[in-house]
Design a protein that fits this description.
- This protein is of the alpha+beta class and 457 residues long.
- It folds into two domains: 218 residues, D-Maltodextrin-Binding Protein, domain 2 (3-Layer(aba) Sandwich), CATH 3.40.190.10; 222 residues, Periplasmic binding protein-like II (D-Maltodextrin-Binding Protein, domain 2, 3-Layer(aba) Sandwich).
- 43% of the residues lie in helices and 14% in strands.
- The protein is built from 21 helices and twelve strands.
- Strands 1, 2, 3, 4, 5, 6, 7, 8, 9 and 10 form a ten-stranded mixed sheet that branches. Strands 11-12 form a two-stranded antiparallel ribbon.
- A hairpin with a 2-residue loop joins strand 11 and strand 12.
- Helix 1 packs across helix 2, helix 9 packs across helix 10 and helix 20 runs antiparallel to helix 21.
Length: 457
């Protein structure tokens, strides 16, 4: 049943190929049969089928190249890469998170020269600068090419803000002013949603706030610098924001308040875009089942157009948060494999192939290349989500890629201990104790620091 659709897609992908930065792709020059594996973390069957079409199209154009698509669960990438490296059987191309790209790149597993050459060919200026920083060696080189990612920021009711004469929530001052202004619990209306339970969502909300104040967990040498004046200010600010939450410890589920018109703004990733745009996706947030003070409501078909997005928060400096997925070229004994994998990756960055890849998860896979978010073909995603937002708003959403940061990568070095701290939920536990149990900020931060030190030791 799907064959005509896949055939049409292949015909589309064999049209003249255009680089993301506007140049025409030259005809590849293959010197003989080459075979390599492409590891992808897109393990869902429908996504695998789409990627296979891209591969089949490329192989039809390049009959001397054989590419084997190998699905690898994201959590298994480190183990599988270690095993393949020890066995001398590394794939030609691997899709992986930026943190893993930096971790293995710094161990010499990836080919920085081939990566750098391809980056220059596509155009370094074609990428958002924030995503490049996340895969940088810190010494002028790169361990991978950023391919797609999601961004977390503040989604807010632009109509409410305009009526109130308030500035968009892009700075500490503007956020707290709006949170207080719209906090009307007697009317079952709340100013903001920030996570206050001991889970990952809470840390995802807190990270850009902390980084906007210049606060970090570690320096580049791996020394713990958590208990700093900048971090204390961020913790105190976050605790103040939490006062304008819906009642009780809150998590991502409280997005229901926003979708039912009872909240002015909330932290969430770009994965929320379809919930705001389509009634059938939002259905789970329109009931009265999740919160006693929410009786349910009808879907607002204009909600996406009434919603703005602030991907970058500023206090002493601009900061954003999100996850970048990259493509790395492992080192090969056979240079022909590196050449073939590089040319295939170059093909994946051509406009038709790239947009086809991103459309596998609208909102979850955002472009790391400039000039894609307002592209007419990108706007025409199969789910018709992006049309609800429009090119201008999509550009604003994706602009968060310019300032995307994480605690676990500092100046081109992955700090493994930061990932361990994240996994053990030390920061969310600290924020829960402060916002829900009334713990003193200094005491809670000292306790968190001691827990971090135990993990490091």
């Amino acid at each position: 049943m799907k064959r005509p659709i896949l055939l049409a897609l292949m015909l589309c992908l064999t049209a003249p190929l255009i680089f993301a930065n506007g140049g025409t792709e030259p005809e590849p020059e293959m010197t003989g049969p080459v075979e390599f594996d492409f590891w992808t973390t897109q393990t869902q069957s429908d996504r695998m089928a789409t990627i296979q079409v891209l591969i089949d199209t490329y192989m039809a154009l390049n009959p001397d190249v054989t590419i084997n698509l190998v699905p690898v669960d994201e959590n298994d990438i480190p183990t599988q890469l270690n095993a393949a490296s020890a066995a001398g059987a590394l794939p030609g191309l691997v899709e992986l998170g930026a943190e893993n790209a930096v971790a293995f790149g710094s161990e010499g597993v990836f080919d920085e020269d081939a990566t750098g050459a391809l980056l220059e060919e596509i155009g370094k200026d074609s990428f958002y600068q924030g995503v490049l920083r996340l895969v940088s060696s810190g010494e002028g080189g790169y361990y991978a090419l950023p391919f797609h990612g999601w961004i977390q920021g503040i989604w807010y009711r632009t109509d409410w803000f305009e009526d109130a004469g308030l500035d968009p929530p892009t700075t500490w001052d503007a956020i707290i002013e709006a949170a207080e202004y719209f906090y009307k619990p007697a009317n079952n209306q709340y100013g903001i949603l920030v996570g206050t339970t001991a889970e990952a969502f809470t840390e995802q909300c807190f990270t850009p706030i902390a980084m906007a104040n210049g606060a970090q967990l570690f320096d580049r040498e791996g020394s713990l610098i958590f208990n700093s004046p900048e971090m204390k200010e961020a913790v105190e600010y976050y605790a103040e924001l939490a006062q304008y939450n819906p009642p009780g410890p809150q998590t991502w589920r409280a997005r229901d308040y926003y979708i039912q018109g009872k909240m002015a703004m909330f932290f969430y990733s770009t994965y929320i875009m379809d919930d705001l745009a389509k009634a059938e996706v939002a259905a789970g947030s329109l009931t009265g089942e999740n919160f006693a003070d929410l009786g349910g409501g009808d879907f607002d078909p204009e909600l996406a157009s009434k919603t703005g997005f602030a991907p970058i928060i500023t206090n002493t400096e601009p900061a954003g948060y999100g996850v970048v997925v990259a493509m790395s070229l492992p080192k090969q004994e056979n240079s022909a494999v590196t050449e073939a994998a590089s040319k295939f990756l170059r093909y994946l960055y051509t406009q038709n192939a790239y947009i086809t890849y991103l459309h596998m998860a609208p909102g979850g896979m955002n472009p790391t290349i400039k000039g894609i978010s307002d592209n007419a073909r990108f706007q025409n995603d199969p789910s018709e989500i992006f049309k609800r937002y429009g090119p201008e708003k999509m550009n604003q959403i994706v602009s968060g890629m310019n300032e995307i940061e994480t605690f676990s990568i500092v100046d081109g070095k992955r700090i493994e201990a930061a990932s361990t701290i994240f996994a053990n939920q030390i920061i969310p536990q600290m924020l829960f104790s402060i916002t829900q149990e009334g713990a003193d900020v200094d005491d809670a931060m000292s306790k968190a620091e001691q827990e971090m030190m135990k993990l490091i030791e």
